[in-house]
Amino acid sequence: MKSEYKLFAVIAGFLFAVSAVYGYWTWYDSPEHRMEWIGVVALILSGLLCSMCGGYFWFISRRIDLRPEDRADAEIAEGAGEVGFFSPGSYWPFGLALAASMAGLGMVFWAPWLIVVGMTAVLAATGGLLFEYYTGSRRSAEH
After folding, report:
1. Domain range holding 111?
2. Are residues 7 and 65 part of one domain?
3. Could you tell me which residues come within 8 angstroms of residue 107 by beta carbon, excluding any fewer than 6 positions away?
4. What is the pLDDT of residues 73-123, one digit of tens each?
5. pTM of the model as a whole
6. Looking at the domain assignment, is residue 85 inside a domain?
């Protein structure tokens, strides 16, 4: 996890530096000497988001043992093996994307009823994706 938090820290630092340069540049280049705030705020918020992700990875990296990616003396064979479980035939991600699109369209056209329906569908699809292997026909025998 050390490589991840370092990567996010570098990106966050870059975004903060670019936001300062962008703010100065738009102020200097404007005839009225006004700063373009939307871009500056977007870059600062992106930097804060990367800082949050980097902080999370830093916090987790202190609690777990070093992985092969984090050690300079590690061998390639140490990283072999199972990476994780990925559902081979789940339709829930498609439903989640449709629900998020519906909620996004509701926000774009400011239709509160569509936002409510879309967010309800997002919650339902998230629950379906989360509990897919705990209920229904895909439930394992040991549960």
Report:
1. 92-138
2. yes
3. 115
4. 988 888 888 877 777 888 999 999 999 999 999 999 999 999 999 999 999
5. 0.60
6. no
